[in-house]
Design brief:
mainly beta
Length: 170
């Protein structure tokens, strides 16, 4: 009986010790140090088209040159305005970005777009903001080009992501 109790104590002690050890992730690549990308890597000469998904919704995100575009979902188009290649510390329409630290950085892969789902072009108060980051590691691989971030509806944050589809033809 003493041997069984000793064995149980050793096993339980080993489990407690094993759970207390931090897990170290295995990263099979060396991350790029640069987080600054060029607008031409995100937009074609006339803009780009992305598939976008946010909290159960999905649609087509069209980013045209000049900071305008639209989201098409459910057969309807909703106009949007966007700013691209911003720093999380930059104030865009009254808000800093996710991961705001208050310190100067050279991060330049943030994108913010404001969608007018209510179709009220003279009222920005009812627009929905999408604030995200463009993937830097895969920016030069069109099949892996993506954006991920947060959006808020009724002051509740939700996740979103978009995957590159194609450049707008000329």
């Amino acid at each position: 009986m003493k041997k069984v109790m000793l064995l149980v104590a050793l096993v339980l002690g080993g489990l407690v010790f094993a759970q207390a050890q931090p897990l170290v992730p295995h990263i099979p690549f060396t991350p790029l140090l640069s987080t600054t990308i060029k607008e031409t890597q995100v937009l074609g000469p006339y803009g780009s088209v992305w598939k976008i998904f946010w909290d159960g919704w999905e649609g087509t995100l069209v980013l045209q040159k000049g900071g305008v575009g639209y989201i098409e979902t459910g057969g309807k188009k909703y106009n949007l305005e966007y700013v691209i290649l911003k720093n999380p510390q930059d104030n865009v329409l009254g808000m800093a970005g996710p991961d705001y630290t208050g310190k100067n950085t050279n991060i330049g892969h943030r994108i913010v777009f404001i969608v007018d789902f209510a179709n009220t072009p003279n009222n920005r108060n009812d627009d929905q903001r999408f604030d995200g980051y463009i993937f830097t590691q895969t920016i030069n691989t069109p099949s892996k080009r993506a954006i991920a971030g947060i959006t808020c509806w009724d002051q509740i944050p939700f996740g979103f992501y978009a995957t590159y589809w194609y450049d707008i033809p000329g």
